[in-house]
Amino acid sequence: MKSNKWGIIGCSAILAAGVISSGCKGNSESQKATAAASGAAASGGSKSADSPFVVGMVLIGPWNDHGWNQAHYDGLKTALAKIPNTKFEYVDKVNPADRPNVKGSQVADDMISHGAKFIIFNSDDYKDDALDTAKKHPDVGVVHVSGDYAWKDGQNFKNQKNLGNIMGDIEPAEAIGGCAAALSTETGKIGYLGPLVNDETRRIASSAYLGAKYCWEKYRKKPAKDLNFKITWIGFWFNIPGQTLDPTKVADDYYNGGFDVVISGLDTPEAAVQAKKANEAGKKVRYVHYDHKTGCDVAPDACLGVVYYNWVPSYFDAISKAKDGKYVGEFVLAEPDYANMNGEKSSIGFEFGKALGDKKASLDELIRGLGDKSVNLFVGPIKYQDGSDFLKPGEVATLQKIWYMPQLLQGITGNSK
Question: Does the pTM exceed 0.85?
Fold first, then answer.
């Protein structure tokens, strides 16, 4: 075992045919692990036939959070198992609460000094860290997940050739999750457990609302005014005691206040954990999980489904190019495979939950409509919360208009900023 200048304990594991064997563990606060994929000699980006191509990942939260961070960890590990002679390193919980005064770019510098040739930053919060790293290390490929610096048609384009963005086109799956909530609520009250407020989270929450509204009106045959869709932002992607609202309490407040379905937008599973407790106490509540495909495992009887990312295809493509010396930064918005959303080739999925029951048929119909474009939820008239036009009658939203939403949509209760 070893420690680097950040005081992060290291641990090695061998990855062969997708199986990890490990003989050590990090301490309770942090862990840094490596996984080497067995196979043929590297070409292109590697120093020699025997030197593995090292990929480093900087994670905003715990690698095993059952959500956003674990989805990235699992996705990268799986992608590298398919690419011969690669090595995986990560540092998790790189955020101001867990690692005060440690920047993501500093962690990346340390990884690169130890041989990393490709760096992935997995949070919107790392946009400047990713740009700084790419500028400082022009021979290293850098990916910033969820950002837009590599998007030539975006508002924040930076012409940095070794910096790319990868994000899943999660909005359709969010709409499916919103639909599941609307089909299942008996009180007409849906709570949304939100992280912090920015363009990304506004568009994701708004997509969930549009899906709920669509299915409330189409399948439940009820007017939109009778649907109560409320969002509470806790202040970060996961709970930081003393700095954010406590997501456990927010979830409980929803369930105890008549909101019988909670949609989670957090990296962590509080909505699921508290739904299980509420049901055990005699309430009938449901939840929609976010980020990691196994989210229903926490409380299967209460789970309507999981809106999740499959990072394997995008990571496999980017790292394969980088290893061959062919990576050029690009903006990748990875779409669902509507014919098989839970297949290994789909970058976006919706895992159906046990609690959905016979309502699955309606979701299947929505998925078909989204896939063949007969259903487009981003067509006007749609207004922002303040009553101004998001989309005029008949107007179809561009990607730019969806990506950079300055407000939540009318019909959602909760703060836009």
Answer: yes
